[in-house]
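cron nightly-structures :: item 1 of 1
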Amino acid sequence: MPATTTSTVSRWDQHGRRHVVRVERAGVQRSLTCETCGWRKGAQFLPWLKAEEHLTAAHQATVDPTASTG
């Protein structure tokens, strides 16, 4: 059985709330889970893009906390 690794995609909404989607990887398959609403989806390709799309569409969370301000 392949090892599972986890990463996160987080964005902030206009009210300052943080929303996070966990991306869990096992082999080539990835599963996405939203910590805010419980949304789940399997994704083999571009899981981080799908996570960002969910955060934008479902939570209007578009501010990337890792983006530079300069």
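cron nightly-structures :: done
The mean pLDDT is 91.
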